[in-house]
Amino acid sequence: MDIRKLEIFAAVAHLGSITAASRQLHMAQPAVSIAIQKLEHQLGCTLLYRDRKGVRLTGEGQLALAQAERVLAEMGQFNNLMSQAKALMTGTLTLTCPAMLANYVLPELLTPFLAAHPGLTASVQQAGTGAIAEGLNSGEIELGVISGPPTPEWDSLTLLHTDMVLLAPEQHPLARQSAVSVNALHGQPMVVYQREYHLRQRLERLCRSHQVSPDIKLETNFLPLIARMVREGVGLGVGLASMATQEPGIKGVSLLEETPFSLSLAWLSRRPLSRANQAFVQYLSQTQASA
Question: How far apart are CA 79 and CA 223, in angstroms?
Fold first, then answer.
């Protein structure tokens, strides 16, 4: 149904005059009359009639006016909400990323962005980069963090270049060294991510290539549990270099055979981003350009 016809009908009903309504709506009187006739034809009933005092509502017209006012009020709220979203006064940034990045890297990116856009909120979900890649391709995830090069179907923005380091409690003998060979992990108790996570896969590839077999004591997707088990000496772990610098009681030790890798923000090229997500991508691009 044409919202404009409802606006014209409501104006005539409230003013009791087609002439007054035409002036208020800046329309010619015949155009107002035609709009009312078309609405009545569409609804299949008479909404207005004339008497000596002007234009009055029929019984059906009274019902129609009450409903029309509700529709117009909701439409006004809708337009206002969309205007606010366009101006980034409201909206939600949605992001899926690995827990380690969310804990140790994302706060310094997200905090100033939200401070600059106080009307926006953020919804951050945790998943491994493999699951994120699948979610991007299926359309379940709009904006996510991946490891390695993006596919041709994605647009991306590199967030950081980093290394996987060995995580050891400060009192551990390996914590006294600045770097160790992966061979030092043979038979070492370790607490690690589950197999679908990128860091676990990197560790396994590195160990296989050097025929090293750690003693996996715990595998989990709970990052705080890994940090606590490492700190309490249950086993060594692996993590981003930024984790080692921010977790008290844990020392980050470089692995000699490890190579740097990238973490990138990615989204499907063919899928339009929400205005909040688009603003976040633009903010990160500008931040990197000015760094």
Answer: 43
Separation between Cα atoms, residue 38 and residue 6, nearest integer Å: 11
Position 87 pLDDT exceeds 60:
no
Closest by CA position to 232, among listed 186, 185, 194, 191:
191
pLDDT score, position 89:
54
Q: Which residue is it, tokens 């992990």?
A: 185
The pTM for the full model equals 0.65
Question: For every residue of 67-91, which 3-state class applies, written as one string?
Answer: HHHHHHHHHHHHHHHHHHHHCCCCE
The gap between the terminal CA atoms of the chain, to the nearest Å, is: 52
Extract the runs of DSSP E, i.e. beta strands, from the chain: 48-51, 54-57, 91-97, 120-126, 144-147, 154-162, 164-169, 179-180, 189-193, 215-220, 237-240, 250-255, 261-268
- The residues facing 55 across adjacent strands are 50
Give the pLDDT confidence score for residue 189 in this predicted structure. Answer: 97
Contact partners, residue 179, CB within 8 Å, separation at least 6: 253, 254, 255, 256
Both tokens assigned to 70: 């509700």
Whether the pLDDT of residue 248 is over 90: the answer is yes
The DSSP bridge partners found for residue 195 are none
**196 vs 172 pLDDT, higher one:** 172
With contact defined as beta carbons under 8 Å apart, do 177 and 78 qualify? no
Banded pLDDT at 83 (limits 50, 70, 90): low
- 128: which 2 tokens? 């491994």
How many angstroms separate the CA atoms of 267 and 143, rounded? 5
Residue 14's Cβ-side half-sphere holds a number of Cα atoms within 13 Å equal to 14
Residues pairing with 166 in the sheet: 238, 253
Instruction: In whole angstroms, give the CA distance from residue 224 to residue 227.
Output: 5
